[in-house]
Amino acid sequence: MNLSELIKSNSERKYFAVYPENPKAYDEAAQAAGLAAFQARFNTNYSFIDDNATNFIGEEVSPYLQTGIGVKYAQYDVPTLVHNASAAFNIWKKADLDLRIKVLANSLERVKERFFEMAYSTMHTTGQSFLMSFQASGPHACDRALEVLATAYQQMTVYPSNVVWTKNMGKFDLSLNKNFKAIPKGVSLAIGCSTFPTWNSVPGIYASLVTGNTVIVKPHPKAVYPIAIFIDELKQELKANGLPTTVIQLAIDSSDQPLAKVLAENEQVKMIDYTGGNLMGDYIESLNKTCFTEKSGINSVILESVKTIDPVAQNIAFSASLYSGQMCTAPQNIYVPADGITTEEGTLSFDEVKDKIIASVSGLLLNPKAGAPTLGAIQNDATSKRIEEVKGKYPSQVQLNDLKIDNAEFENARIKSVNVLVVDAKDESIYLKEYFGPLICIVKTESKDQSIALAKHSAEKNGAITCLAFCTDAKRMELIEEEMNSVFTPVSFNFTGAAFVNQHAAWSDLHVSGGNPSGNASFTNADFINKRYIWIGNRYML
After folding, report:
1. N or C: at which end does the chain have fewer Cβ atoms within 10 angstroms?
2. 491: phi > 0 → left, psi -120 to 50 → alpha, else beta; which?
């Protein structure tokens, strides 16, 4: 690891990657070995090097096989976890920044050797496709972790460790020795989600660790295996450096007996990283603790003018269909003016635009080579049921119902195609709700200005992580950017081809602004690091 290169890339925000996202960039035999390692773990206890528990539990179910994978993890009670974390904190906080960075960077190199195992474990716990599972859980998560390390080094070295301070007092000089220390806050809790168990959790985990805090990881009980690999390799690297392996711990729980609130309310837990729904996220934010949240939101598409409609409709279709809409960055509401949009070939009516989008969704999903890999599988059956309830409540708005999509590799895969509701702008009770999963709303607005106003209002009230806009007029683009930025929502303009609004790249894009109800933190700005420690200055008389 070249730290200076990482810092340079972190500041430039250009394309940069340490871990290639293409599986073919790795050893030819690695994929088969990863699959074998994953399969060998079925119906076994996943034990860490320091496990001494007698009770092992697990409830992970493959969305592709719709059977349990049988992996179980050591269960510890909250007092034990907190005691271990507090004891380890007293040692870990004394490790200097260079050592912490070395240990954490080395752990990522260890994880790299298990990228394919992680891909299969992610695929069979979340329902992501193999390629997404490989990229997001392995290379992209590790690059985000390195980005955290670079940011931490930049922020934690802004002051000198020691300095002689001299002030002339007239007939004599007053000299003091001063030191400046970044004091970590203590025990940190990371609460993970079921759809992106590493990509969403790893930045916060590594941010807490690099700043000298210890971490208890409480993953979603349905998606433990992928983050367990990170914890495993972190423990191995800590042990290799003579450091307590309980600097990082897994808190396993069950759906029937969740531990998140019990851990969050423990007085020894000083910080919380959370990814998930608003109800729990709002609760976390209500606690008198440092917290970093990513919650839900409603992402918008503002459609005003395009050069040509086909590549735009195809881009929207893919963005909405990728991983069955189970991405926090996926678009939900597509705002189209009632009088249509302008193109280089002339004006397209609302119905023509709507039909193009629906046709593009259908064409993508019914393509036997593209449909199933794009959709992946539904992580939780509750998602499918929620979409059915919505369609049952608003049957007259449904203009694209479930398509029959087959997965040739996994005949039992839990698949649900993207459904499309067409609504009027006045129907706010329908579209100003988040429908996490495979459903989009095409909203007929009175005008282009109303489209912007509704997207802005939605972001301010419900939160938004992304906004996709299609506009060929420079002044209108400035207006859209200004209006959406005013409610702390970034805008992606005129994406077609291989650029998709869902994707946030490490070393360049900020993920979540932290300024609207979709979350209070951002991967990975300075605040994401600085709030995890306190600067203290001490003075010594010479």
Report:
1. C
2. beta
